Amino acid sequence: MDKIDRAIIAELLRDGRISNVDLADKVNLTPGPCLRRVQRLEESGTILGYRAVVDPAALGRTFEVILDVDLNAFDRHSVYGFEDAMANFDEVTEIHRMFGSPDYFIRIAVNDLAAYEEFLSEHILTLPGIQKVASRFTMKTVKSPT
């Protein structure tokens, strides 16, 4: 990957819907070579995809919770079972298996505190193998991935 590829990626991170003509102009290429570079970056797996960044309020998900989870068993069945179950909840927006403690860092987005309490009680705490959960509530989002 060279300087031009990095410039293309930087522009696409700023605006994934930028036209090829505008992108080419910003990285000082003509449209043909710019498009070929973007396609090469997509085919190589460097660019994994494109997505919309949506206002959480529009989805009724303005209440964000960071959930730390520790499991009581680490056999393959327990770990993958937990991960699969968590990944299937729409309220779960991010899951990270961690080195050290906690075992998992999970980001959850729901409408309000009552919705979180219900989600935690009815879904998370019913999963087998959970030893401990700790909830942290977001006061303010200063920077988030786009």
Walk me through what this model shows.
This protein has 146 residues and is an alpha+beta fold. The chain contains five helices and four strands, in the order H-H-H-E-H-E-E-H-E. The chain has helices at residues 3-14, 20-26, 31-43, 76-87, 113-122; strands at 63-71, 92-97, 104-110, 130-137. It has a four-stranded antiparallel sheet with strand order 2-3-1-4. Strand 2 and strand 3 form a beta hairpin. Helix 2 (20-26) crosses helix 3. The two termini are 22 Å apart.
| SSE topology string | HHHEHEEHE
Using the CA coordinates, give the radius of gyration: 20 Å
Strand order in the sheet with the most strands: 2-3-1-4
Unreliably modeled segments: none
> How many individual helices?
5
Shape: elongated
Structural class comes to: alpha+beta
Level of helix content? Answer: 25-40%
Q: Terminal Cα separation, in Å?
A: 22 Å
Q: Could you give the count of β-strands?
A: 4
**Kindly state the mean pLDDT as a whole number?**
95
The fraction of residues in strands falls at 15-25%
Sheet bearing the most strands, described?
Answer: 4 strands, antiparallel
Describe the SSE topology:
Elements: H1 3-14, H2 20-26, H3 31-43, E1 63-71, H4 76-87, E2 92-97, E3 104-110, H5 113-122, E4 130-137
Antiparallel strand pairs: 1-3, 1-4, 2-3
Helix pairs in contact: 2-3
